[in-house]
Design goal:
Layout lengths: L3 H21 L9 E6 L5 H12 L5 E6 L4 H13 L7 E4 L4 H6 L8 H8 L4 H6 L1 E2 L2 E2 L2 E7 L1 E5 H7 L9 H11 L2 E3 L6 H13 L5 E3 L8 E2 L4 H14 L13 H10 L2 E6 L2 H12 L4 H5 L1 E4 L14 E8 L6 H11 L2 H11 L12 H6 L3 H10 L9 H11 L11 H13 L6
Parallel strand pairs: 1-2, 1-3, 8-11
Antiparallel strand pairs: 3-13, 4-5, 6-13, 7-11, 7-12, 9-10
Helix pairs in contact: 7-8, 9-10, 9-18, 18-19
């Protein structure tokens, strides 16, 4: 079957030959190199940064953006296929952190010069550095960082008599929701959000999905069938059967959670910071009353046990430079411009995507628009990246299969069955 991207590459090659012929005929010197930045869909913020950095380069390079599909898994699929063909047109990539080890292990990322690594990690939150690291080396440049907060209605907390300025556990939240006669919105559908939730639970319990990592899939040791894995399963099951999980919990994603929170059927919610931008847009568009937003509160993600810190979900985007780029030095210079403190701040303000640099969260303009910025920064310092492995798709897909629906998860059973499935998939004995 003829691949569309091969057709595009062929067309691009012919165009370059034609341009070379014109240059040979005296059409004048070629312009600065064009660096192609493959971006995830947003509200135009990355394209704006590309224009700013093109201007700031002083003519050294031009950055052109190319938009990837909306779903992270589809972004991965498109990039991996092209990189596997040594595609030199990929200079810079906006990468979802869970897939970064796969790119690095396959040799798809150009090594980061040590001086660049030192500059781009200075003042950066630890979870973003961890999410850009594989096998002890920084392999991508931290750009923007994301984390989930515990959102709550001040009125619900008051009705329950719970002090939200102090750390709370999942069990305490269920009890508080019962007192306030409301629900807790969370994401229980069979999707990546389920892996995000489970990973936060097992990390807060003091464990990890992968207990011993390896580039050899048969040598990976899992931490699911452990006391910490069982404790995470216990919390998941207890919440899913608490009567406070809300209607259709097992099919609910982030957007459904927001809808329940805005409508007032949920007094608490775990979700990403886009919640705030969506609420402000609703007020501006007349679909949400300001009084509803005035009732919003925010806190650090729930703990599993009172004596162990929370391990909030970590997400965001990091930048990778293609290993086959003709201009890796210029591409890394461009990434430094893209992730500058000024650009991270502007991206936060215009697109609602939190920065990876700590200093942005105390900026007066940021605080005026995002009063929860200090809580986001605190959460990012605590956040735990999802399992870092070149085989992330197989691990996450197996977790989604075995831990869904959450109400059927059983301590001492689900961890064992999930371990068996993942080991079988990684060894090639079974397909998802």
């Amino acid at each position: 079957m003829r691949r569309p991207w091969r057709s595009r590459l062929a067309a691009a090659a012919l165009a370059m030959v034609a341009m070379g012929g014109l240059a040979a005929c005296g059409s004048g010197p070629a312009g600065p190199p064009v660096l192609t930045w493959y971006i995830n869909p947003d509200d135009g913020g990355q394209a704006t940064i590309a224009e700013k950095c093109t201007q700031a380069s002083g003519g050294r390079y031009t950055i052109a953006t190319s938009t990837l599909p909306r779903e992270a898994s589809e972004q991965r699929q498109q990039l991996v296929r092209r990189l596997a063909a040594n595609d030199s047109s990929i200079d810079i990539m906006s990468l979802d952190p869970p897939y970064i080890p796969e790119y690095a292990q396959a040799g798809f990322l150009a090594p980061i010069p040590p001086d660049v690594a030192a500059r781009v990690t200075q003042g950066t939150v630890q979870s973003a550095i961890d999410g850009a690291t594989w096998d002890g080396q920084l392999v991508a440049v931290p750009f923007w960082a994301n984390t989930q907060l515990l959102w709550y209605k001040k009125s619900a907390a008051a009705a329950a008599g719970i002090d939200m300025s102090q750390p709370v556990t999942w069990d305490q939240l269920v009890e508080a929701a019962g007192k306030a006669n409301t629900n807790i919105a969370a994401q229980g559908r069979r999707a990546e959000s389920l892996t995000v939730w489970f990973n936060a639970l097992i990390a807060s319990a003091g464990g990890a999905v992968i207990a011993q990592n390896s580039t050899d899939p048969t040598q990976i040791r899992l931490g699911l069938d452990t006391p910490q894995g069982d404790r995470a399963a216990e919390v998941m099951n207890s919440f899913a059967n608490s009567g406070r999980e809300g209607a259709a919990f097992s099919t609910a994603g982030e957007d459904e959670s927001v809808a329940a929170f805005e409508a007032g059927t949920a007094g608490w919610m775990v979700n990403w910071p886009f919640v705030w931008s969506k609420a402000k847009s609703g007020v501006e568009g007349g679909t949400l009353e300001q009084s509803v937003v005035d009732d919003y509160g925010w806190a650090i993600y729930p703990r599993v046990d009172a004596d162990k810190p929370a391990a909030p979900p970590y997400g965001g985007i990091n930048l990778g430079v293609g290993a086959f780029s003709a201009h890796p030095d210029l591409a890394y210079a461009a990434t430094e411009c893209i992730v500058s403190t000024e650009n991270q701040k502007e991206y936060f303000l215009t697109n609602g995507n939190p920065a990876s640099r700590s200093s942005v969260f105390s900026d007066p303009e940021v605080l005026a628009d995002f009063p929860m910025a200090p809580t986001i920064e605190q959460s990012l310092q605590l956040a735990a990246p999802r399992p870092q492995t070149p085989y992330y798709s197989e691990v996450s897909g197996s977790i989604q299969r075995e831990y869904h629906p959450p109400g059927s998860v059983t301590p001492g059973v689900t961890g064992k069955s999930a371990t068996e499935l993942i080991e079988a998939v990684l060894s090639g004995r079974q397909l998802l």
